[in-house]
Structures are given as structure tokens and as C-alpha cells.
Design a protein that fits this description.
alpha/beta, five-stranded parallel β-sheet, Rossmann fold, 8 strands, three-stranded antiparallel β-sheet, Methyltransferase, Methionine Synthase (B12-binding Domains), Chain A, domain 1, about 300 residues
Length: about 300
């Protein structure tokens, strides 16, 4: 796309990261309030200017200070900046830090209040942006839930209610961030015997946020089915999430079978709490954490034959 005379060059996922607004909120604000007018390509893709990003960031800060967007949407950017500065001077614009969000989320988990948990997580996502939300809020929360459950401080019903709320939010976020049709394509699943999906969905959100197309197959799938789906979808990368190691031999056998049946040029990445079980397997990369996952995807996207 040629840059227009306003300097529009930022796709919506970059704007979402810089402003802390999800693409869903961005589109809703544009449609309802006309807060900015992005350039659209012939294919309908939005591109934004630096001024658009500044304006949207100010609107986000003002909304967190208690301002109704509908009442301030038509203010000039300079007037918005003054308003936000005034709110900050009075202490009304402090965005809750990650620890605050985690504390509120864990209180909702202990109260077995999934609706409240979803609301807390959604606010954390809006205020922190996708990357910080995944790294500093959601991942630690899931670890805390596991710790609380194993210690007997919460019951299985608490864990299940929290998991359902988290999975619902993550599945929605994957669709909101989904990459363009010509973007690199990652296929994600959990192998046979692995039923926990949160890790895979977090990986899916991180990939989608980086511009990848994501196909999420679901949990507890045999190697043959994953391989067939990878071939059908021409996946550039296949990722597995493994959370438990009770059946280590079965897990290793499933990963080996998948690696043998995949195209030799298709990378196979395995992450999760039990990923160390398959460390050392031929042509399998163990993913250490989300930062490592992002770096692997970025390296692969850059090396693709048709990469820009």
C-alpha cells in the first residue's frame, strides 16, 4: 500500500498494542463516535496515522478516568490532551497496575464469580494491551489458580469456572486479532491425553497478535488427525501445548508420531508445563515461555520465501 498524504502506515494490530485498545473497541468507537477516520485499502484493511494513535491513546486514558467516550469523542486532540492532563493532576487517570488486576481476578476466582472474572480480565486487557496482559496478568493468574487448587485452598469447581471464563475470553481475542488471509499460518492443538487448553489458547493469542493466521483444533487429538489438518491447511508451523506428564511415554510417542508424519519443512514446537518430557526429540523445538514463542514465530515469518 502506498502511504497517503496523511502518513497512514500503522495496521490495526499495531494501533491496538500502542493504545491498549482491542481491535473490537477500535472498530466500535469508529463506528459509533467517529473518533478517527483511518485510511482503507481496496481490500478493506485499516491503516492509521501517528496522530490517530495519539488521539486514541488520549481517549483511552480519558475513559479510564471515568469519562464517557460519547461525550468527549468530538473534542479536538489538543483539548483531549488538556483534559487528560487535568485528570492526571487530580489522580483520576491512574491505570491499575498488573498486580492490581491479578488481585481482583484472584478474588473473583475464590468467590467462584466467572462473570466478574471475565470483566476484570477484560479491563486488564484494555488498560495494559495484549502483550502485557498475557505476560503479566493472565499467565501468573493461571499459575496462581493451579497453586491454590493443589494446596486445597480452592476446589475443582473454582478451577473449572475460572478456566471456562479464561478460555472464553481467549477464544474471542484470537478471532479479534486474526491475521490476514496471506499471513503465515500456525496450527495449534493439544495431543492425545492432554485436555488442558489454556496454554494453547494463550499461544494462539500471542501468534494472532503478531499477525499470524491461527487454526485452533482443540484438545486431546491423535497425531494422525493433527498431521492431516496441518496438511489440509498448509500450516507453516504446528504447535502443541502439553500441561501434564502423567503419561510421559504416551506423550513422547504422540509427539514422535506427529513429527514423523508432518512435512519435514514444517517446524513442530511444543510448549507448556510438561514440554520438558519431549526435550531432545528429533526435529522438535521445546518452547520455554511466551517470549521464546514470539521470537520463534517472528524468525520463521521473516525467513518465509514470500516474506516482505
Amino acid at each position: 500500500m502506498e502511504q497517503d498524504d496523511r502518513g497512514a502506515r500503522h495496521p490495526i494490530r499495531v494501533v491496538a498494542e500502542r493504545t491498549g485498545l482491542t481491535p473490537h473497541v477500535l472498530r466500535a468507537w469508529e463506528r459509533r463516535y467517529g473518533v478517527v477516520t483511518p485510511l482503507r485499502t481496496e481490500g478493506g484493511q485499516r491503516f492509521y496515522t501517528d496522530d490517530d494513535i495519539r488521539r486514541l491513546s488520549l481517549l483511552n486514558k480519558a475513559s479510564h478516568a471515568g469519562r464517557a467516550v460519547g461525550q468527549i469523542a468530538q473534542m479536538s486532540t489538543d483539548a483531549l490532551a488538556q483534559l487528560v492532563a487535568q485528570d492526571a493532576d487530580q489522580g483520576a487517570a491512574r491505570l491499575p497496575v498488573a498486580a492490581d488486576h491479578r488481585a481482583l481476578a484472584m478474588a473473583a476466582v475464590r468467590d467462584m464469580a466467572p462473570d466478574r472474572l471475565r470483566a476484570v480480565l477484560h479491563r486488564a486487557l484494555l488498560s495494559l494491551g495484549t502483550t502485557a496482559f498475557l505476560d503479566s496478568v493472565l499467565t501468573p493468574i493461571l499459575q496462581d489458580v493451579g497453586t491454590e487448587w493443589h494446596a486445597g485452598r480452592i476446589g475443582i469447581a473454582h478451577e473449572h469456572a475460572a478456566s471456562a471464563a479464561v478460555e472464553q475470553l481467549l477464544a474471542w481475542l484470537v478471532q479479534e486479532l486474526q491475521g490476514a488471509p496471506d499471513a503465515p499460518h500456525v496450527l495449534l492443538a493439544t495431543p492425545a491425553g492432554q485436555r488442558h487448553t489454556q496454554g494453547a489458547l494463550i499461544a494462539a493469542v500471542a501468534a494472532a497478535h503478531d499477525g499470524w493466521r491461527v487454526t485452533w483444533l482443540g484438545a486431546d487429538l491423535p497425531a494422525a488427525q493433527i498431521s492431516a489438518a496441518a496438511t489440509r491447511h498448509s500450516a507453516d508451523v504446528v504447535g502443541l501445548s502439553v500441561a501434564t506428564a502423567e503419561s510421559a511415554d504416551q506423550l513422547r510417542a504422540e509427539v514422535d508420531a506427529l513429527r514423523d508424519s508432518l512435512n519435514a519443512r514444517t517446524p513442530l514446537y511444543v510448549g507448556g508445563m510438561a514440554a520438558s518430557v519431549v526435550a531432545g526429540a528429533d526435529e522438535v523445538t521445546v518452547v520455554r515461555d511466551l517470549t521464546h514463542w514470539r521470537n520463534l514465530l517472528r524468525s520463521h515469518a521473516t525467513s518465509r520465501p514470500n516474506a516482505a
